[in-house]
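Database export, one record per block. Field names are fixed; values are copied verbatim from the stored entry.
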Amino acid sequence: MIDGYGVDATETAQRIARGDVSPEEVLDAALAAVDRLNPVLNAVVLVQEDAARKAIAEGLPRGPFRGVPFLIKDLGCEAVDFPSHNGSRLLANTRYRRDSAIFQRMRATGVVTFGRTTSPEGGIGPATESAVYGGPTRNPWNPDHTSGGSSGGAGAAVAAGIVPFAHGSDGGGSVRIPASSCGLFGFKPTRARLPDGPYVGEGWAGMAIDGFLTHSVRDTAVMLDACEGADPGAPYCAPPLLRSHADAISRPPRRLRVALCDTTLTGDPIHADCRAAVHQAARLLSDLGHHVEPARPQADVLRMMRAWTDIVACGTALGIHSALRGRALGAEDVEGVGRGAIAHAATLSGERYLQAVGEIHAFGREMAAFFDPEAGHPWDILLTATLSEPPAKVGRFSHVTEDYVAYRTGPDGVFAYSPFCAVFNASGQPAASLPLHMTPGGLPVGVHLATRFGADEELIALCAEIEAARLWRGQRPSIQA
């Protein structure tokens, strides 16, 4: 940002409010950073400078982030002034007739949105390498590695300091994976905590939700407070908060019982650097007075992953067929994984789709039991790594293959690389990735915390307590504004 790498959105807004810098100057700095860094990172697309300057000239809302430059993900988050490719050549330059509820609420905070960030086609995958952008999005810590996905452009833009925070979304880890890969904080709220309308009622059978990539817990807390709550006509809503996220982080949580899992949730080993990150976090939590003990849920994770794969294939096929509007799919319309998803969806019956949704719901109950004292599991928090290994090399999760099922569930597939995140999209429980570890080679490794359904305030309070004990904003990637 304009003065000091890692300055968060709250501090940037305070500087603007004091008159130290103007919204125009901060926007100029962000645009200059795009010009300088985007040729390497390929993170920011569809820049709408005129829309941003018009918003400033007409008077910004007097919200908590008034004047702070902001980017929205190029997937969903429909907005009249911001056309979208949605990560796909098929959907390139899509225009919208009205703003989505999530965009309206973000805009009301006073942010100055000036463009979008890259995402993989369909939001499928832990890397951002969509053909519509002409190449992969790269990690500011090491451009040979991915910045993650599907909010990979957001992660790269924030980590590099182009903007202090950015919008993302998370249907299988798509906020937490780039947070882990880029050394940022990423929080997935309880299912339906944020609005989906009016363009959809729910994403991926309720597994997808919006979120934010931030340098600080407080930025996420304030933005969640600004955006939380169902939009009119939503099919369901999250349990009401007992207090705001911002209030929750103002004081530490009660002392919690933390289940430590240093393997995958099926007991398979993870990379030594990720295991070390988990144990370092466990020691920190113990030092803070929390009770930490080894344990892991006994839930049917493999069945959940198969159900997730089927549901997302159906959602992908629906999106592609809707965009085709009756014409045949062309060879260049979508990438290999998308074609594979269509082919897989064609093998599934309506009965199987509903069965898969039922399996996801059953899995949610299995995971809920792990945090239920009446079920004999007095755990408050589950501690794992965010990913099973450090950020992957660029190209490993490209969308070239048409074997959609193997891409997701194969021995070298997405779920093997990211075995923790989608668990909590399926269960609907809140979860977060915290940037607490670096590999000897200088790559970020995230630590993952999750809790019971609806307990967002307690989880984010714990994240803030950890942040205060282990300030992480001084870390600097090799590519930065």
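Remark 1: The chain has a mean pLDDT of 97.
Remark 2: The CA atoms of residues 197 and 233 lie 8 Å apart.
End of record.
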